[in-house]
Structures are given as structure tokens and as C-alpha cells.
Design goal:
The protein has 3 helices and 4 strands, in the order H-H-H-E-E-E-E. It is about 40% helix and about 20% strand. It has a 4-stranded antiparallel beta sheet. About 25% of the residues are buried. The model has no long low-confidence stretch (mean pLDDT about 85). The termini are far apart.
Length: about 150
Amino acid sequence: MKEHHCSAQTSRQQAGFTLIELMIVIAMIAVIVSLALPVYTSYTIRAKVGEALSVAAAAKTAVSATCIENPTIDPLTDSSAGYSFTPSKYVASIGFSGSCRDPVITVITRNTGAPAPINLILTGDMPDDAGRLNWVCTANTANRNVPAECRS
């Protein structure tokens, strides 16, 4: 009978995880989440701002077409460029300023998840007799929240 009792003890196997093993797994998950969450948040903000930049492409086209036809327009406005904009989910407004020699398009975002609205400033330059506008994008916020083409 003693043998039977001994063999029952030695054949008994551990089932489940120990508390320390579970705590280690939870700690590892916490470290991974703490590293990944800021990167993911920045990525989603950048994607929404990128969408705003895509919406502004129509404004760039309107300004380019208008200024190539009549480079003496000063001041440049939405109506002089024949452009109108209805606010969208991520874009609060698009406005024009400057002249056809140095046009400026200002895009103001909203609902991107950033702490404040992001202003994208698209500055055009029409070199003499080039027949086209060259655009440069800058932003009023940290580089990690804007698309690569708007990073300074």
C-alpha cells in the first residue's frame, strides 16, 4: 500500500501556471503596450493629417491653374481661384492668401487626435517662365504628427 501511495505522489503533475509566471507575462505585455501605444497614436494622427493634405490637392490644382492663366492676381482668394471648400471630418478649413507669384494655402485640421489643430501651410513658388508652381509644405506642430513632405 505504501508503494501505491508513493507512485501516486510521483506521477502527480503540475497543472496551470504559477503566480510568478503570470506576473512576468503581464509585466512583459505592459512593457510592449507602453512602447507601442505612442507609436500607434502618432501613426493615426499622421494618417488623418495626410488625408487633409490629400484634400488640399484640389486647392493646389485650382491655384496652379488660375495663376498660370493670370499670374498678376493679387491678392489671391478662394473666389479668385474658383475654389470652394466644405469642411470634412478631418479638415476644418482651407484658405488662400498671397499673390500668384507667392501663393499660400493654409489647411487647418480637426478631429485628428492631436492635442491642437494642425495647420499645414502650402507655399507656392512660380519661377519665371516655368509655367508651373512648386509647392513646399510646412506645419505648426511636432514633426512626428505630420506627413514626411511637411516635416522641416
